[in-house]
UniProtKB/TrEMBL annotation:
One of its GO terms (biological process) is microtubule-based movement. PANTHER family: CYTOPLASMIC DYNEIN 1 HEAVY CHAIN 1, MALE FERTILITY FACTOR KL5. Pfam families: DHC_N1. GO terms for cellular component: axonemal dynein complex. This is DYH5 protein. InterPro entries: DHC, Dynein_heavy_tail. GO terms for molecular function: dynein intermediate chain binding; dynein light intermediate chain binding. Residues 5-167 form the Dynein heavy chain tail domain.
Length: 169
């Protein structure tokens, strides 16, 4: 029982740390007003990397051994652990899925940032069709908050490109 108690203390520390990561993950992001759409892709790539690392740690042999011992001891802390494990898996899947979908927009980011306003407009219909496809098919990116944030960043990029064009002309 002494070993079980020590292991439960360790797992409770992990639970607290993982909860903190999940809470931070859900908080609103503070971004510059003129940030472009490539920042959205970078955000999700960073999030995917951190959650994949967390999943790797959760699935490590060291953690699995401790969980197995606590299962044998019928520890009550495992209920919380399993819930958090599931939440981390969901967050990792969400980030991976969002990166996959946002990569389909990556080919538009260059022309959106470097083209003249006239050339840029040639890409807008295809860009909007791709955004629509993401909204209609993504299980995670199909909320008005996510889509509004993405469209705002696309608009920011278009405005910045036009400003640069006007200043150079």
């Amino acid at each position: 029982t002494e070993v079980t108690e020590k292991l439960e203390e360790v797992v409770m520390i992990w639970i607290k740390q993982i909860r903190q990561v999940l809470v931070e993950n859900e908080q609103m992001r503070r971004e510059a007003d003129d940030i472009g759409p490539s920042a959205e892709l970078e955000h999700w790539k960073t999030r995917m990397s951190s959650f994949n690392s967390l999943l790797d740690e959760i699935k490590s042999s060291r953690v699995k051994k401790i969980i197995t011992i606590l299962q044998a001891a019928r520890s009550k802390t495992l209920k919380h652990w399993k819930e958090l494990d599931g939440n981390v898996t969901i967050a990792a899947n969400e980030a991976k899925d969002n990166v996959r979908y946002l990569y389909t927009l990556d080919k538009f980011f260059g022309p959106l940032a470097k083209a003249s306003p006239v050339t840029m407009m040639e890409h807008v219909p295809s860009l909007m069709n791709t955004v629509c496809m993401i909204y209609c098919t993504s299980p995670y990116y199909n909320t008005s908050e996510r889509l509004t944030s993405l469209l705002l960043k696309i608009t920011n990029q278009m405005i910045n490109t036009c400003k640069t064009y006007l200043c150079e002309g």
